Amino acid sequence: MVFAALLVLGGGFPAWGSTHAEPAQPAGETEIPSMEEPRQQAIKPPVPSRGQLLYENHCMACHESVVHIRTQRQARSLSALRAQVLHWTAYLQLRWGKEEVGDVVDHLNRQYYKFDSR
User: Fold this and answer.
1) CATH number of the structural domain spanning residue 60
2) Model pTM greater than 0.90?
3) Tens of pLDDT along the chain (118 residues)?
4) Which residues contact 115 (CB under 8 A, 6 or more apart)?
5) Rounded CA gap, 115 and 50, in Å?
6) Spatial CB neighbours of 48, under 8 Å, sequence gap ≥ 6
7) Is residue 25 domain-resident?
8) Is residue 5 part of a domain?
């Protein structure tokens, strides 16, 4: 009986009988940012070059980049590097034109060889 009286009068449970109780926030609800607040820009991954994509698709199947950093590497100049790319292009029957060969040579030179590109 005392319990019923407390419930009717709002005693013991302030949220039930009091008009001064604050409304509860739903769990997990966060404040919505205003449209005026600056948004952080998404970080975009670097876009691989065409030469890198060609190399990874056609050349990495037989060897990895280790062949480019070994001390006894075949290419010792930019023209020798181009000759190696042409050799393996013909061997694999890739039907690459000058542009594709040039892109792969540029990629390899930038990535590994660092020959003077005069």
Assistant:
1) 1.10.760
2) no
3) 555 555 555 555 555 555 566 666 666 666 666 667 677 888 899 999 999 999 999 998 887 777 887 888 889 999 999 999 999 999 999 999 999 999 999 999 999 999 987 6
4) 77, 78, 81, 109
5) 20
6) 56
7) no
8) no
Residue 26: left (phi > 0), alpha (psi -120 to 50), or beta? beta
Number of residues that this document lists for the chain: 118
The answer to the question of residue 86 being in a domain is yes
CB burial readout 30-42, b (16+ within 10 A) else e: eeeeeeeeeeeee
Q: Identify the DSSP state of 37.
A: S
- The DSSP H or E segment spanning 86 is helix 78-91
Residue range(s) defining the domain that contains residue 101? 50-113
Q: Give the total number of structural domains in the chain.
A: 1
User: Does residue 72 belong to any structural domain of this protein?
Assistant: yes
Please say whether the beta carbons of 101 and 55 come within 8 A.
no
Closest CA to 12 of 22, 20, 3, 23: 3
Contact predicate 17/11, CB 8 Å = yes
Q: What angle do CA 31, 35, 37 make, to 5 degrees?
A: 80
